[in-house]
Design goal:
PEPTIDASE_A1, protease, single chain, 16% helix, 8-stranded mixed sheet, 7 helices, hydrolase, Cathepsin D, subunit A, domain 1, 6-stranded antiparallel sheet, 379 residues, alpha+beta, 2 domains
């Protein structure tokens, strides 16, 4: 009998250390236009609630072409299915509500959560709101069972959105956002789903990681891995940077340089899976960096290069925790209807934001247990 107990215990131990994999889908239209790029920039400013200090013009969000990485979850019993943006640049978990106002096009254009159809729904009703640059998102708190990658999270509280701001979320390919930032930045300090995965012992380590397939298809965009990292997705070892502000996944960057010449030293950056670009948090550095790669200014936000010269452009080297991470021009230049645009844009005088241009090249581990972010060369 004791032998069988040991065998069962061993099986349970193996199962507890297994990585939980969530396939993520990538949406990137082959016809990315300059207005789409401008929209993504405006959307990022809206997300971080910042404005440009070098322009007095008002930004209007248009319908973007939805560059990003999304995955499937379900909520309620029986399950109601949603496509969500897994976003390390925010901490709130929200979904459209079946009770959204009739005039809210974005809500009615997506899957909506209906609490009356779930036997595990627990009413809360406390008003909740999230600020966006284009307006406030309004809703209320609800609690239900959430399933992600085969894991069942009990009593997860989230926001049922009844009013989405402006037209920011019109025609988006995701229904809602599942924030993976720190609880400190969540509305009403509600524990994000990853916190509850850990507290309910659904994963063996308080770690998750992203492999973003930069050249993947819409159905094979990569994987979100819960409970650790997968060796097959990276080479060498991780380099870890401690989190400097436990709200965003924020850390110190030693420098960013071109041809051995530093453009900026010792600044703060955020690892954000919710954007495809790299936001420069200093206007002078924005101009200098783009000029050093040989780009010319197209407008207040964008620089471009001659598409025929992309292969000959210099690498951009970002140094983190004493290690150099080199971005080749094929990674930081993207094509937009005949234009070759730089991925480095000016967001505001704020922290820098390293989006998928960086994370897609360097497998990224988010270690909540040790409050650190790790980077390794992606395969």
């Amino acid at each position: 009998m004791f032998k069988y107990i040991l065998i069962i215990a061993a099986i349970a131990a193996v199962q507890s250390t297994e990585l939980v994999r969530i396939p993520i889908h990538r949406h990137e239209s082959g016809h990315r236009t300059l207005p789409h790029v401008r929209d993504e920039i405006a959307g990022l400013r809206s997300k971080y609630n910042v404005t440009k200090s070098h322009s007095s013009g008002k930004e209007t969000l248009i319908n973007s072409q939805n560059m990003g990485y999304y995955g499937n979850i379900s909520i309620g019993t029986p399950p109601q299915y949603f496509l969500v943006l897994f976003d390390t640049g925010s901490s709130d978990f929200w979904l459209p509500s079946s009770k959204c106002v009739a005039s809210d096009y974005a809500c009615h254009d997506h899957q909506r959560y209906n609490s009356s159809k779930s036997s595990t729904y627990i009413p809360n009703g406390r008003p909740a709101g999230m600020m966006y640059g284009s307006g406030d998102m309004l809703g209320y708190l609800s609690t239900d069972t959430v399933r992600i990658g085969g894991l069942t999270i009990r009593n997860q509280t989230f926001v049922e959105a009844v009013q989405e701001p402006g037209n920011s979320f019109n025609h988006k390919h995701f229904d809602g956002i599942l924030g993976m930032g720190y609880q400190a930045f969540a509305s009403d300090q509600i524990a994000p789903p990853f916190y509850n995965m850990w507290s309910q012992h659904l994963i063996s380590k308080a770690v998750f990681s992203f492999y973003l397939a930069r050249n993947g298809t819409s159905q094979q965009g990569g994987e979100l891995i819960l409970g650790g990292s997968d060796r097959k997705y990276y080479r060498g070892n991780f380099t870890y940077a401690p989190v400097t502000h436990q709200g965003y996944w924020q850390f110190t960057v030693d420098s960013i340089a071109v041809n051995g010449s530093a453009v900026k030293r010792n600044f703060q950056a955020i690892a954000d899976t919710g954007t495809s670009l790299i936001a420069v948090g200093d206007y002078d550095a924005f101009v200098a960096l783009n000029e050093k790669i040989g780009a010319k200014q197209l407008n207040g936000d964008n620089f471009y290069v001659d598409c025929a010269t992309v292969a000959s452009l210099p690498n951009v080297v970002i140094r983190i925790a004493g290690r150099d991470f080199s971005l080749e021009p094929s990674s930081y230049i993207h094509h937009s209807n005949g234009l070759c645009l730089s991925s480095f844009f000016y967001m505001a005088d704020y922290v820098w934001v390293l989006g998928d241009t960086f994370i897609g090249n360097f497998y990224t581990e988010f270690d909540l247990g040790n409050n650190r972010v790790g980077f390794a060369e992606a395969v």
